[in-house]
Design goal:
single chain, Helix Hairpins, 6 helices, AaeA-lik-b-barrel, transmembrane, 4-stranded antiparallel β-sheet, OB fold (Dihydrolipoamide Acetyltransferase, E2P), elongated, 6-stranded antiparallel β-barrel, MdtA-like_BSH
C-alpha cells in the first residue's frame, strides 16, 4: 500500500490542496467583522448591565397570595341546606350554608318572653311606687287632720276643767274631754307612724325597681344573643369571591368552630409575596415597580407595597437559635408584599400560583429597560 500511495502524481496533490487556500482567505477577511460584532455585543451588554441590569433584583421564590376566609359554624346544629356549589362565584352576604333553626328559634322566643316579663315587672313596681307616694300624701293629710283634732280636744278639755273648777261643769264632762284629748293624741301618733311607714316603703320599691331594670337588661342581652345565634344558622359570604373547599354535607351535625367552607377573594384582590434574599434588600423600597412573570402564563405589573418586619424564619413554628455550638450561616429571606396594578387581565390568577418577580430599583424606574433603549439613553446622555 505504501508503494501505491507514493505512486500518486504530484500534480494531483497540488490540485486537492488548492481549495483550502481560498477558504482560509475568506475566513481571514470575515474574522475582523466577527471580532467587531463580538466587541459591539459586549459593549452593548456592558452598557445594559451598567444602566439597567445591576439595578434589577429578581427572585423565583414568589407566589400569589390572597386573604382566604375559612368559614366555620358558630353554633351547633344540623346542615339542612347547601346553597352553593364548589368553585361557584358568590357575592358579599350571600347565604352559603343553612343550619336547622328550630331549636334556636325556640330559644329566641324564650328570651323574648323573659324580656316581656321583666318589662312587666318594671311596670308593676312603677305602679307600686306611685301608690306608695299616694299613701305618703294620704298619711300627711291624716297627720294634719289628727293634729287639728288634737288641738280641738285639748281646748275642750281645758274649757271643761275650767267650768268644773267654777262649779259650772260636771266631773263626767271633764273625763270625757280628757279622754277625747288622749284619743286625738294617739290618732296623731298613729298618723305619724303611718307616714313613716309609707315613706319607708318607697326606697324598698325603688330598689326592687332597679333590680327589675337589671333583670330586664339581662333579658334584653339574652334576647340579643339568642337572635344572634338564630342569625348564625345561615352562614354567609364575608365578601365577593369564589366558594371552595366545602366540607359540609347535607344532614351533617356540626359543632361550633367546625370548618365548613372557604371563600377565596376575586382576582382583583390578590397580591404577590416575594421572598428576597437579605443581600437583595439594600435598594428595595416601597413604591418601586415590579414585573411579575406568572408560571401559569402572562406577565403582570405591580409595585412594592411593604416589607415584612422580620425574616420568614422568625415567624416559623420553631425560629432558629443561632447561639448554639453548631452554627451554619444561611442567607435569610424577607417577604416583600407586591400589589398588582389594577386593570390587568388577571382572571386566571389563583392564590398559591408560582411567580417570578423582578424589582426595578433605579432612581428613575420609568427609564428604558431594553438593551437598545438603554444604549440609546446612554448615547443621548453623552
Amino acid at each position: 500500500m505504501n508503494a501505491r500511495t507514493s505512486a500518486i502524481p504530484e500534480s494531483e496533490t497540488r490540485t486537492s490542496a488548492a481549495p483550502a487556500q481560498p477558504r482560509r482567505s475568506r475566513f481571514r477577511r470575515v474574522l475582523p467583522l466577527i471580532a467587531l460584532l463580538v466587541l459591539a455585543g459586549g459593549a452593548a451588554g456592558g452598557t445594559w448591565y451598567w444602566q439597567v441590569g445591576r439595578f434589577m433584583e429578581s427572585t423565583d421564590n414568589a407566589h400569589v397570595g390572597g386573604d382566604i376566609a375559612v368559614l366555620s359554624s358558630r353554633i351547633e346544629g344540623d346542615v339542612v341546606r347547601i346553597l352553593v356549589a364548589d368553585n361557584q362565584p358568590v357575592e358579599a352576604g350571600q347565604p352559603l350554608i343553612e343550619l336547622d333553626r328550630q331549636d334556636w328559634q325556640a330559644r329566641r322566643d324564650q328570651a323574648a318572653a323573659a324580656l316581656a316579663e321583666a318589662e312587666a315587672n318594671i311596670g308593676t313596681l312603677a305602679a307600686q311606687i306611685g301608690q306608695a307616694r299616694a299613701q305618703v300624701a294620704s298619711a300627711e293629710a291624716q297627720i294634719a287632720e289628727a293634729e287639728a283634732e288634737r288641738v280641738r280636744a285639748v281646748a275642750d278639755a281645758g274649757r271643761a276643767g275650767t267650768l268644773a273648777q267654777g262649779g259650772y261643769g260636771t266631773r263626767e264632762a271633764v273625763d270625757r274631754t280628757v279622754a277625747n284629748r288622749r284619743k286625738a293624741e294617739a290618732a296623731l301618733t298613729a298618723a305619724q307612724a303611718g307616714l313613716e311607714s309609707a315613706r319607708g316603703a318607697i326606697p324598698v320599691l325603688e330598689a326592687q325597681s332597679r333590680s327589675a331594670s337589671a333583670r330586664r337588661d339581662a333579658a334584653r342581652a339574652a334576647l340579643a344573643l339568642a337572635e344572634s345565634d338564630l342569625d348564625h344558622t345561615v352562614i354567609r359570604a364575608p365578601y365577593a369571591g369564589i366558594a371552595g373547599n366545602r366540607a359540609a354535607q347535607l344532614g351533617q351535625h356540626v359543632r361550633a368552630g367546625q370548618n365548613l367552607i372557604a371563600v377565596s377573594p376575586t382576582a382583583d384582590r390578590l397580591y404577590v409575596t416575594a421572598n428576597f434574599k437579605e443581600t437583595q434588600l439594600r435598594r428595595i423600597r416601597e413604591g418601586q415597580p415590579v414585573e411579575l412573570s406568572v408560571d401559569a402564563g402572562g406577565t403582570l405589573h405591580g409595585v412594592v407595597q411593604s416589607l415584612a418586619p422580620a425574616t420568614g424564619a422568625q415567624f416559623s413554628l420553631l425560629p432558629p437559635e443561632n447561639a448554639t455550638g453548631n452554627f451554619t450561616k444561611i442567607v435569610q429571606r424577607v417577604p416583600v408584599r407586591i400589589a398588582v396594578d389594577p386593570g390587568q387581565a388577571v382572571a386566571h390568577l389563583r392564590p398559591g400560583l408560582s411567580v417570578e418577580a423582578e424589582v426595578d430599583t433605579r432612581d428613575d424606574p420609568h427609564g428604558p429597560r431594553s438593551l437598545f433603549g438603554a444604549a440609546a439613553a446612554m448615547i443621548r446622555g453623552r
